[in-house]
Request: fold
Amino acid sequence: MATNFLKKIDPTQLVGGKKKPEIAPVFVTNGTSTVGYRVVKGLVEHGHKDIRVGVWKGPRQDGVSQDIGPEVLDEFEALGLTVINFDWTKESFWTMSLAGIKTVFCTLPLMEADASKFHDFVEACRKNGVKHFIKTSFYTSYGNYPFPYVKFQSDCDKSLTEPKEPIPGVTHSTMPYTILSSSHLMSTPLIYQGPALRNDRKYITASYSMGVNYVSPNDLARAAVTVIADDKKHHNKVYTFSNSGPHLDKEIATSLAKFYGAQIEHIEIGFHDFQAVLKKRSLPDWLVDVMAGFERMKASGFEEKKAAYAHVKDIEKLIGGQPEDFDAYLANRSAMTRQELAGSAELVIDPSPGIDKLSVKDEDEAPVEGGGEGGEDEEKETAGGGEGGEEKDTSEGEEEKDTSGGGGGGEGEKPAGKGDLMASV
Reply:
């Protein structure tokens, strides 16, 4: 599918100019994440083909959706890219993955993982001669809140930004880094509540009607491509991305109705009710904590404060324009992953034995309801646990689940289907 989400970037800064940066080979650790997928397609679109793409092909962790890796693998291999099986929590994958690599773009998938393993991976990158490490994260304004995902992302970030801390006795990398930190990704509802949106026409939240700082994965990917292509300008910097203002979940439901071509009912429930429903799905405790934590972040009210949007200039500077609002994100279907598009008015699930297939619908046909779980996004970023950041990637030992993005990191992948989210609502 075409990826015109990079249209705001001047192509000369990516492939032209007086001196093209020596960024290749580039290793994208999670090509099935919401942001990772877009970054790969964006680099290819602008002339970069020396890309190694990590795709998790093995079994998922308990509670994590089954994979869309095979479809993405076929798509990337058709573009002439090198696609490899990758799991950043296992050292056996590192040597082959990092051989000859100059640039690493990392979105951490949603998974149960120890940040110390990420520190080891960063050190392996340094020892293998990586010249620039770019990572998505979740914005640190939540650093004082007890959210597992935020703490996990923060601990991983320190392996890049702090040469000695937080793990005594571990020599940390001094290689150049760039951290792209964002809030909740706009792709999160489509990926994590796909079945409820498509089949039940319900959008369930526990945000207590608070405004939410949603960031478009298109904007995050645009920024990432800019940073990768013009690397030295962005060495050792942390960018915090926000939108221009808060979105209300009831407003998001209206936008989702246009996307799905059907009325979407917004249902607001309490935090503990939200948590209880997740537990009824028999999800592992770490995943319940992460997903419920995202709603608690939203309900905290922090994202209604002006301080939450103080960094909008970061994203404007990197993408060369205003950030997308929710309607613009949903309208930009050509950039979306299969997980995001599943069940929309443009694509529907065609159920067949063993696997769901996406088929293009005629524009004048009514959207078909049902037909499979779809809507999983890998990009969340990992979880020590958390959302992602949307954002995947999600995201996710997984084994892989990015984004990133999520949060800005929150990229991520949707939990395994053990019943629709809030099926009892």
Remarks:
- The radius of gyration is 19 Å.
- Residues 285-299 form the longest helix (15 residues).
